Amino acid sequence: MATEDDNLEQVVDEVEDDTVNEENKEECILRGKQLITVPPTVWKNRDIYKLSLQGNKLKELPPQIRRLKSLQKLVLSFNAFDNFPLVVCELKKLTHLCLSRNRLKMISLQIGQLTHLTDLRLSGNYLTEFPEALCTVELSNLEIIFLYDNKIKEVPEEISLLKKLKILNINDNKIAALPDSFCELVNLEVFKAKNNKLKKLPPDFGEKLTGIKDLDLNGNPLAIPPLVVCQKGISAIRKFQENKKKEAEETLAIHMARRQSDGPADKLSAITKVVPKPGLQKPNVKKEDAYCVDGIPAYRITSEPRGVAIIINNHHFTVNEQRPNESRQLPNREGTQLDKEKLQSMFSELKFDVRVFEDLSSDEMMRELIKVSMENHDMNDVFACCVLSHGSLGAVYGSDGIGVKISDITSTFIASRCPGLRGKPKLFFIQACQNEERQENVEEDAVSVSNVIPDQADFLLGYATVPGYVSYRDTKQGSWYVGALVQTMEKYSERLHLLDILTIVNDSVAMESSDGCVQVPAPQYTLRKRLYLNNNK
Question: Is 89 a catalytic residue?
Answer without folding.
Answer: no
